[in-house]
């Protein structure tokens, strides 16, 4: 039986699906910013941070603080994506392990959404910077020779496209392991988390940061979810993961995430 297309067998709880998707996205954002950019900034001597819901500090201020040390800025810039990819590989491997037999639908969904969001976001940033000239990888474009600068941007874009397609393909191949309708598992989550983050982002004092960081991070970081559902059409598998059932645990954790996102949106100054 192809469970992914039979809505009558869909026993997944939509409330828990939305809650888990919000938690997953939060656990992509914070490691990227804190463990990636934050830790490397600290290692290079930075001691003051401005953390908001989708970014930490301002790379330009780091450049000024470090006296324009190009090597340090480059490492800080790529550290977030590096952390994303490492987390994605670990969680992706764990998902393949637990989804071989009956397992908790909620746990598997959290691991899957977190893994694919981390991987996709980690590899989409080079392409985003190559196209728009902003973002984590934009500092690599500060090359005086126009030919080599354009060549680097072309390579970043090509790499990003290939890596994103491979990520979407993996997500589409593993999504049918869940019982129920794959569109219910992905599309409502995408719009729910996007609305939450963008609405909370309106509390930011920096409109430019909202436009160049919060909105792109939110819309791009999760687009792999609905894309994988679309691509998985025609993929027939026997679902081995249990339905996602209601649990107050996920509702409470999601509520805590919303509070944390709301409080950090204007920016929290951290001095170490």
Structure report:
- With 272 residues, the protein is mainly alpha-helical.
- It has one domain (3-271).
- The protein has nine helices and two strands.
- It has a two-stranded antiparallel ribbon.
- The longest helix is centred in the first third of the chain and has 30 residues, at 14-43.
- Residues 1-8 have low confidence and may be disordered.
Helix/strand-derived class? Answer: mainly alpha
Overall pLDDT score: 83
Q: Helicity range of the residues?
A: 55-70%
Number of separate strands: 2
Tally of separate domains:
1
Q: How is the main sheet built? A: 2 strands, antiparallel
Transmembrane segments: 12-29, 71-95, 107-131, 151-170, 182-202, 208-227, 248-270
Keywords: Membrane, Transmembrane, Transmembrane helix
Question: How would you summarize what this structure contains?
Answer:
This protein is mainly alpha-helical. The protein has helices spanning 14-43, 59-65, 70-98, 105-132, 146-174, 182-201, 207-222, 224-231, 248-264, and strands spanning 48-51, 268-271.
């Amino acid at each position: 039986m192809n469970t992914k297309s039979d809505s009558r067998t869909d026993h997944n709880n939509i409330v828990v699906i939305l809650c888990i998707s919000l938690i997953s996205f939060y656990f992509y954002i914070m490691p990227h910013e804190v463990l990636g950019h934050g830790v490397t900034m600290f290692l290079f001597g930075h001691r003051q941070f401005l953390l908001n819901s989708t970014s930490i500090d301002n790379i330009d201020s780091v450049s000024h603080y470090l006296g324009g040390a190009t090597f340090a800025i480059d490492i800080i810039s790529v550290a977030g994506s590096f952390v994303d990819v490492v987390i994605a590989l670990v969680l992706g491997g764990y998902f393949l392990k637990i989804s071989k037999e009956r397992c908790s639908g909620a746990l598997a969904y959290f691991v899957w959404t977190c893994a694919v969001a981390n991987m996709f976001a980690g590899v989409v940033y080079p392409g985003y910077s190559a196209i728009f000239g902003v973002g984590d990888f934009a500092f690599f474009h500060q090359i005086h020779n126009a030919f080599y600068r354009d060549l680097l941007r072309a390579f970043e874009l090509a790499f990003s496209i290939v890596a994103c397609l491979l990520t979407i393909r993996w997500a589409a191949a593993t999504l049918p392991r869940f019982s129920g309708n794959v569109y219910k598992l992905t599309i409502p989550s995408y719009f729910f988390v996007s609305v939450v983050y963008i609405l909370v982002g309106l509390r930011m004092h920096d409109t430019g940061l909202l436009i160049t960081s919060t909105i792109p991070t939110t819309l791009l970081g999760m687009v792999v979810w609905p894309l994988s559902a679309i691509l998985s059409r025609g993929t027939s598998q026997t679902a081995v993961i249990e339905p996602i059932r209601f649990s107050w645990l996920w509702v409470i954790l999601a509520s805590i995430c919303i509070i944390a996102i709301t409080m950090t949106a204007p920016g929290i100054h951290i001095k170490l």
